[in-house]
Amino acid sequence: MNDESVQIEASENTEDVNENSDANRRTCWVCFASDEDDPTALWIHPCKCRGHSKWVHQNCLQRWVDEKQSRQGTVAVACSACNTEYIIVYPKLGIFVHILDTIANVNYKICPLIAAGIFVGSIYWTAVSYGAVTVMQVVGHRDALLAMEAADPIVLLVGLPTIPFMLIAGKLIKWEDAVLTLLRKYSPKLPFVRYMLPLFMTENEAENRGSDFPPLASSHSSTSILCSALLLPTIATFCGKLFFDSVSNNLHRTLLGGITFITVKGVLNIYYKQQKLVRKSQRKILNYETNEFTSTSTGTSIDNRSEPAGGNNSGRTQTVNIPSNDAMFDPADWNS
């Protein structure tokens, strides 16, 4: 029994020694080298980490700090594991070098603000120029120059840049969708609207969906909204000269041209959206059987690969094209 206890104690002491030696073994967390790999390297433990991860080569850590300070040379660097800020000591600089270093730091902090100011100023003066050009288009070149010369400069500097933003804000008003929703909601209840606008009544729509209409999908992107809003004065001027050339007042002529363009464009958009909603409301999802459906841009083709028993069409492919119109189809008609 005494011999066994002595052996157990000896093995436990050996394990403790091995554990202490493993704990004292240094491994660089940057290059993963140990004391055996580079006996002459300088080791440091610059943070609160414990175990193997607290040791690092001085040169390896210097390179890692250089990467962190590549944009700004004096920024604080901390350990990525324990977030302890490294204590970095720099040698003293001369007065002239210290002044240059201060100027570099101030320049690093001020340059983003200057760039933002230049960007905002560019947008502002672009908006002022666009507003002035728009006024000359709508009112007329001579009348616009006289009006702007007589106006207060502060009024011009405040009022002209608001013109493009007002055009964009007006373009964001979806009046066409509101009109379409009202027409779809009240057209079945008003006989004269049903007679004048039959396209708003879909076949069997009330039976299939009740009062639940398909949602309106917006197809306008930010670029199309921006372009259409900023081009509206030019288009209004062109339409005014084309359709209302007899009107002598340039402002009245441009307003009439703009109203005409917006009205015609709105009616066409309402018609287009309604046709898309009609097509969506008549959509039907079929049961999956032995047919494989392949959707195409012009309709749907059905590839029937089942062999009819005793028929002469063995090995053939039967394809039926469904036109992409607004008519309703019964799947039983495809077998005829």
TrEMBL record:
Which PROSITE patterns does the UniProt entry name for this protein?
A: ZF_RING_CH (PS51292)
- Keyword Zinc attached: yes
- Note the Pfam families from the entry: RINGv
Q: Which UniProt keywords apply?
A: Membrane, Metal-binding, Transmembrane, Transmembrane helix, Zinc, Zinc-finger
Note down the stretches annotated as region Disordered. 294-336
Q: Which SUPFAM superfamilies match?
A: RING/U-box
Put simply, this protein is called E3 ubiquitin-protein ligase MARCHF5
